[in-house]
Q: What sequence folds into this?
């Protein structure tokens, strides 16, 4: 979903996946369990099959596939734009690229 380009780092480069528990702790327990089950199943798919499934979620607008797409995209985007990175990551963050910085008024 976020492969990176000349400016933005890829999702995997940032190491932000390590902070998934920060998001999951705020989820409704039933939703969290459903997401964990989905991720567990997806983790067994070979990469080409996983890509095909994600493409299917984007192109077929059945309610279930739409919810899967929204859930996965929300998770990935929330982690990526949280500006949390692996301590070993030394590249530019998404906040650096878009020029975002919190300031006190």
A:
């Amino acid at each position: 979903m976020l492969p990176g380009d000349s400016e933005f780092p890829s999702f995997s480069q940032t190491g932000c996946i390590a902070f998934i528990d920060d998001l999951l702790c705020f989820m409704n327990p039933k939703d969290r369990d459903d997401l964990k089950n989905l991720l567990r199943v997806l983790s067994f798919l070979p990469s080409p099959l996983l890509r095909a499934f994600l493409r299917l979620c984007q192109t077929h607008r059945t309610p279930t596939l739409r919810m899967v797409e929204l859930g996965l995209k929300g998770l990935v985007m929330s982690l990526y734009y949280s500006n949390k990175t692996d301590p070993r990551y030394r590249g530019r963050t998404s906040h650096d690229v878009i020029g975002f910085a919190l300031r006190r008024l």
